[in-house]
Amino acid sequence: MDPIYLTYLNRQDIEALKLSDQEVLDAIESGLARQGRGEAVIEPRVHLEPKLADGHFNVLRGVLGTANNAAGVKIVGDFVDNYKFGMPSEFGVLLLFDPRNGVPRAIMDASGITDMRTGAVTAIGAKYLARKNSKILGHIGARGTAYWNVRLLDHLFAFDEIRVHSRRPESRNGFAERLSRDLGKKVVATEDWRACVEGADIVVEASRLVEPEPMLLTSWIKSGAFVVPYGTMSAVELSLTDIMSKLVVDDWGQCKSGKFGSLRAHVEAGKLSEESLYAELGQIVAGLKPGRESEDETILLWHRGLSLSDIALGHAMLKKGELLGIGQRLRYA
């Protein structure tokens, strides 16, 4: 057998790749389309709770066929108290394999990948499901994936007004300052949830609650809005799905199972089911179902996080690294 080598991309390598906003969006949109066309295999994520701290590990697995020919497993920890120790809440590793023979192809830092791909799924969802003239964004949450949500949404919509909120004043103010600096426009940190989301064209709820609590009220959502709730613990009222013209998810298999997720109670109450579900996002991106069809539709997207998105973005990073000579070549066998 010939020697087998794999590529290692650490956090500094990932940063050195300098993927543009559009490169991130293109990789994720392509992966979603392949999922929609049935050119992928995905299994629901698994949660591992060490019970040694307030946090858990997510284990995601999938295969993207045809153009990518990449299989992958991502393990990412989500520990909400890490900020107390000056650390991000999420650390992750992505492993890529050749699905034709199981040969390992790459090991890479997945913390940045997680943030980027989550923001990209939010943004691609808005591309197909939000009103084209959306000008006001209300974003709840300031850690983890929050930055890329706002950055990539603004890349597509060039908002007139961006509002952000999180529980701790220093967190939301720092987040607003960072966004203002990077986006070159004013970003407002609000003092409460209502001021952040009421009347917004696009509402993203990425809170980090300890337990489910209805913090985002249905009455604050204006007609025609696009709403993306995806916190680990539900922060929305049961009535939220009642006002929606369309309910869309990233993968029904993982949304209908498990103990976590922003619409877990809605699934258990029968408000979100195979009958009430409009589509998976990949079906819309692939053109198999229409997205937004009128200005007055109020639409919800619940995405729990796709291994396929991690794999698609990881594959794009691997390819760019090969072109630029970034990364370390390690002998496996």
Automatic annotation (TrEMBL):
Domain of life: Bacteria
Gene3D superfamilies to which the protein is assigned, alphabetical: NAD(P)-binding Rossmann-like Domain, ornithine cyclodeaminase, domain 1
GO CC list: cytoplasm
Family that this chain belongs to: Belongs to the ornithine cyclodeaminase/mu-crystallin family.
Official protein name in the record: Ornithine cyclodeaminase family protein
Species for this entry: Bradyrhizobium rifense
